[in-house]
Amino acid sequence: MAPFDIQCTAKANRPRLEQNHAFESAGGTVAEILARFERAEADGTRALSVWGSIYYHVYGDSAQDYRNHTVVAVPYATRDLGFPIARGPAMLWLMEAGTSGAHLMVSGR
Question: Are 73 and 105 in contact (CB under 8 A)?
Fold first, then answer.
């Protein structure tokens, strides 16, 4: 975690955030933690984000020296949504298509 780290999303996304926290805080190797997420995805128990909800994440060394990471949740969206799946300047693109974690990445600082 960065010294300056703020995250914000819709209250309705709390079940997914709590599930993320439970999987990560159970400990283990990175592979073991990722396996928990993969099992939940495979068996259909992965908590879903609200379609169209936004996750804002601002982090860095200080409020003056930061990066932002903004995504729009679109669970199970595929390329049929019409967005590219590769990053480009000043645009949205689809990541993790077809999964519960599918989301549109928002370019920019």
Answer: no
Reduced to 3 states, what is the DSSP secondary structure of residue 106? strand
Instruction: Give the integer Cα–Cα distance in Å for 49 and 9.
Output: 10
What integer best gives the mean pLDDT of the chain?
92
What is the DSSP secondary structure assignment for residue 25, as one 8-state letter? H
Helices (H) and strands (E) in the chain, counts: 2, 5
Ordered DSSP codes for 30-73: HHHHHHHHHHHHHHT-PPPPPTT-EEEEEEESSSSSEEEEEEEE
Q: Is 28 helix (H, G, I), strand (E, B) or coil?
A: coil
pTM reported for the whole predicted model: 0.85
Find which of 27-31, 59-63, 84-88 is predicted with most confidence, using mean pLDDT. 27-31
* 7-39 pLDDT, tens digit each: 999 999 999 999 999 999 999 999 999 999 999
Quote the domain boundaries for residue 56.
4-106
- Report how far Cα 96 is from the mean position of its chain's Cα atoms: 9
